[in-house]
Amino acid sequence: MTDFTRVVFLFFLAFSAWAAPCTNPGKRRAWHTFSNNEKLDYINAELCLMKKPASLGLPGAKTRFDEFQAIHQLQAYATHFVGAFLPFHRALLAAHETALRNECSYTGYQPYWYEQRDAGKFKSSIIFDATYGFGGDGSGAKGCITTGPFANYTNALGPAYQNTDHCIDRRINDMMSQSSSQREVDACLAKKDWISAWNCIEAMPHAGGHAGVGGQMQNGVSSPGDPLFYLHHTWLDKIWWDWQAKDRTKRVAEMGGTNIAPDNSPGFPPRPASIPRPTGADGDPGTTTTLNHVLNMYGNAPNRTIGEVMDIQGNVLCYEYVEPSS
Ligand SMILES: *[C@@H]1O[C@H](CO)[C@@H](O)[C@H](O)[C@H]1NC(C)=O
Ligand SMILES: *[C@@H]1O[C@H](CO)[C@@H](O)[C@H](O)[C@H]1NC(C)=O
Ligand SMILES: [Cu+2]
């Protein structure tokens, strides 16, 4: 290369890096469109996190898998019923996906559970397949799952704020799963502003997956003890993104809502006196959630601000959602 072409080339590189930081977004696809081999790759990567010992010193966590659950458990009251709800879960999903890829040789991306396909009939969903899925419903007095790749995993965190060894439990409820229907999704997508969209997603599709699976998944504090949590919340993240993409420039900057969760929220485990009432105002100047709000990843990944995760194809995140039909 001559000096001139080298300069042009370097200039081009610098320019393309500046103009398009996310040139090759990871493809997040629906679980039911995965081939059997792709399903096993994901399951095996999750099993790998479950076998790796914890190293961050988070209370009660024994494995890498537990450490991601701990991020959620430790700040449940600072991340639900507040403006940070969807941004926090977006950052948590990205941290978990990165760990699967960087620590467990997973070469795919985080799948989502296209729940409207199964709404009202979760019990017959292929997601609960024992061989190419997450195992079935719970059974017995404790509702422990007994089939599938995660049947023998011992959760060390939960239920709620307790840290006790227990099984992954489920109590699948088809009626509750109706809140994940296409009708409910469409209702949220039609909302005109952030506060309405977030409240709609948290109240309906969010509740549909958690209460439709039941057991561990229904526990607002310790729900990431069931690996299905990640597929459920990735679907919610897609709904938020689909809403954002309808008016992208405006909606990747649209934040707000309280940063102080109501103390005993309905359907949410009560906060024990030993857990201090979160003030929520981490990086926010007042009681309203802003783009400067810090999302604490407890050492599992770099902390993020809400502003950094608003766009899924920005400087920090780089993925896209593939529709199941394509
Ligand atoms: C779980 O443990 C039981 C009893 O030890 C064993 O038969 C079964 O194969 C194990 N299942 C998995 C998925 O590891
Ligand atoms: C992450 O954020 C929390 C809360 O603001 C803070 O206490 C912690 O020190 C931060 N961690 C890092 C590595 O910056
Ligand atoms: Cu949550």
TrEMBL record:
Keywords: Copper, Metal-binding, Signal. Residues 257-286 are annotated as: Disordered. The keyword Signal applies. This is Di-copper centre-containing protein. Residues 1-19 form the signal peptide. InterPro entries: Di-copper_centre_dom_sf, Tyrosinase/Hemocyanin, Tyrosinase_Cu-bd. Residues 80-97, 226-237 form the Tyrosinase copper-binding domain. It holds the Pfam family Tyrosinase. One of its GO terms (molecular function) is metal ion binding.
